[in-house]
Amino acid sequence: MQPVNLSNRQIQILKAVIEEYIETALPVGSETLDKKFNLGISPATIRNEMVKLTTAGFLRQPHTSAGRTPSPKALRYYVSNLLKQKDISVAEEVAVKEKVWDKRHKLDKLLKEATSVIAQRTHSLSLTTTEEGDIYYAGTGYILQLPEFYNLEMTRRLFLLLEEYDYWRKIFLTGEDVADFKVIVGEELGAEFDSCGMVFTRFKIPGHGFGSMGVIGSNRLDYGYIIPFLQYMKGLITEISG
């Protein structure tokens, strides 16, 4: 449901800002929107609407830049209302299934391989946990290529947390039911991870309770691909681990 305080024009501008930010990792200005997107309104009107979106908490103005970046509130709204999920091709589904098929009789090997596949396909850090206290991760090298993770202190803290099962259990395996997927951005992961984002889903492991798998990266994750891919992996693990 669209917030009543956003007009169609504001939604159009917000979508353009988010998609440009996801592509470039840079603050987005009205001039860029005017040149790159066919919004049908003047740069002055774009600037005025961006000020309103900033006041409403959907955009942020970092430092003294004239450009804006989307807030966690904006990214959640985008995923829930504006995102077009990409189709996972049959060829990709077959390739992924072949990759993990031989590991299906050993749960630890299956989950380890699945975690590695998720990292490779999403070019992100991937993490899988189970109720029995297991934790698997892969793809640390991918996030080191992102400008957000040039912040060495934030990256160091994240890497240290990869071994902390209780931290991820609180995020992955407690709280409300996750029917399909859940997106966590910015401060929801902790103040020190303001520029990070995560998508995860829970899955049933026959005879072993529940598990959860997710992708961690910048808040500019390719949500349109990652969400359906995790949903496919959830169904695949449930199917072949039985």
Highlighted features:
Beta-Lactamase; five-stranded antiparallel β-sheet; two-stranded antiparallel ribbon; 16% strand; 2 domains; alpha+beta; Arc Repressor Mutant, subunit A; 242 residues
Structural class: alpha+beta
Strand content: 15-25%
Low-confidence stretches: none
Cα shape: elongated
Radius of gyration: 19 Å
Distance between the termini: 38 Å
Question: What percentage of residues falls in helices of 4 or more residues?
Answer: 40-55%
The total number of structural domains is: 2
Describe this structure in words.
The protein is α+β, with helices and mostly antiparallel strands. The protein folds into two domains: 8-82, Arc Repressor Mutant, subunit A (Orthogonal Bundle); 90-240, Beta-Lactamase. The chain is built from ten helices and seven strands. The chain has a five-stranded antiparallel sheet with strand order 4-3-7-6-5, with helices on both faces. A hairpin with a 4-residue loop joins strand 3 and strand 4 (135-138). Helix 6 (107-122) runs antiparallel to helix 10. The radius of gyration is 19 Å and the shape is elongated. The chain starts with 7 loop residues before the first helix and ends with a helix.
Please sum up the structure shown.
This protein has about 240 residues and is α+β, with helices and mostly antiparallel strands.
